[in-house]
User: Fold this.
Amino acid sequence: MAVLDPAHPLGQLLQRDPRYKLDAYLFVLEALSFAQDSLGLGAEPPLEDLEPARGVEAAPKTRPGRSRRKPAERHLTGQELCEAARQYALQQYGYLARTVLAAWGVQSTDDLGEIVFNMIEIGQMRKTRKDKREDFHGVYDFEEAFCRDCSFVVPDPA
Assistant:
């Protein structure tokens, strides 16, 4: 397990809100990348909809005539992130996905929303003016979502 500097914003968050383990926060960031890179989810939000990032310094400006090419920021809805998290967890942990997430304090899509909004508060994620915690409420039932396509085959002893 990696040691996190207690002065890092994530270290301070873990001390302030002990409901979720560091692995839960890292999982949500990985699920976000999975959604954008592997599933192709997300759309570039209009600039006027994006709220300024919290706790992060503005990027330095470039000289006239030079542009700093940064990939467009793609935004996911709460429902899209929840679905990406489900697919990513199943891909990474298979039948144990629900158990692994529960060990980190994540037992519902509401928990995913709490993690996202905690990360927004410390400047590790951004939101649009339309995003709310309620977007994550009851998106799916964990028991059903992580056993939806489960089938166990008992080998024939013959």
